[in-house]
Amino acid sequence: MTSSTTFQPVLERIAEEIERTPGRGRPADYIPALAACDPRSFGMAVAEPDGAVYGVGEWRRPFSAQSITKVFTLALVLAREGDALWEHVGREPSGNPFNSLVQLEYENGIPRNPFINAGALVVTDRLHTRTGDASGELLSFLKAESGNQDLTFDKEVAASESAHGDRNAALGHFMASYGNIDNPVPVLLDQYFRQCSIAASCADLALATAFLARHGIRADGTRLLTLSQAKQINAIMLTCGTYDAAGDFAYRVGLPGKSGVGGGIIAVVPGRCTLCVWSPGLDERGNSVAGVAALDRFTTLTGLSVF
Fold first, then answer.
1. How far is Cα 7 from Cα 167, in angstroms, rounded to an integer?
2. Which of 243, 258, 259, 269 is catalytic?
3. Which residues pair with 223 in a beta bridge?
4. Under a CB-based contact definition with an 8 Å cutoff, are residues 135 and 65 in contact?
5. 30 an active-site residue?
6. Which of 67, 146, 279, 288 is catalytic?
7. Contact 60, 74 (CB under 8 A)
8. Do the Cβ atoms of 190 and 169 come closer than 8 Å?
């Protein structure tokens, strides 16, 4: 790719191809507010490090960010704790579903990585201990980085997740029994469900992720992460960001990425751009079918990849 002006035609071509694609998967059915989404909805945005943003389809329509938010919470904690964080959570792919309990007992309550639910609970717990309001700190960060002061929590989604949150409660209590959770589990769960319920658009999330393309520099020019820490988060996104499909995602897309069961996926081209794609139809591993396909086409058409 020779010029950023080619992003818009590329996005339009991808949208046309996606529109002709049959079979878009199924929305997450365990959260009623997500189950009602049209699986053929589609939006995609690309943000450059200077804040320019391009989009196609429903790229300004807010959707439930869900596990995409785990990237930002991780960045906020890593900025505060540095390598001490890794005493509480690992950096290895899990190979198991995102809400699995299986490995925790073998590994003494230390989750495999920050992006499975157990690991995200630990990271949210660390941020809550540091700030007294983990979800509020996250929302403030997203507002600042996206430039959208209207971002907010979706109370319906948070309540729905809380009502179906027994597995996350089990994870929290299990890790607390090993001393790996600081806060009361009900307090942690409330923070975690609020975090996951944030509604944002492709444009918002592409812009909010751009600090990772800028090697740790925030939108206002201040440094959040060291060069090494930004690299670390990108590396964990590449190896763990799409759950037990991370290998296939790296093979097809070749970018650090993080998906959420709301149908969104963010991706990073360090130094060049960040992307967010949204389509609520999921595959059996919880990743957007059209979203993965669109990112696959983007890296193929542009030649932009970390490989």
1. 41
2. 243
3. 217
4. no
5. no
6. 67
7. no
8. no
Q: Assess whether 243 carries a catalytic annotation.
A: yes
Catalytic residue (choose from 10, 70, 77, 197): 70
- 70 a catalytic residue: yes
pLDDT per residue as tens digits for the range 247-295: 999 999 999 999 999 999 999 999 999 999 999 999 999 999 999 999 9
Question: Is the pTM for the entire model greater than 0.85?
Answer: yes
CB neighbours of residue 263 within 10 Å: 31
Structure tokens at 248: 């296939």
Residue 53 among the catalytic residues: no
- 59-62, long-range: CB < 8 A, 24+ apart: 59/201, 59/202, 59/203, 59/278, 60/201, 60/202, 60/203, 61/201, 61/202, 61/278, 62/199, 62/200, 62/201, 62/204
Q: Which helix (H) or strand (E) holds 134?
A: helix 134-146
Kindly name the residue from 261, 269, 277, 292 that is annotated as catalytic. 261
Considering only CA atoms, give the Rg of the chain: 18
**Residue 279 appears among annotated catalytic residues:** no
Catalytic residue among 192, 201, 269, 292: 192
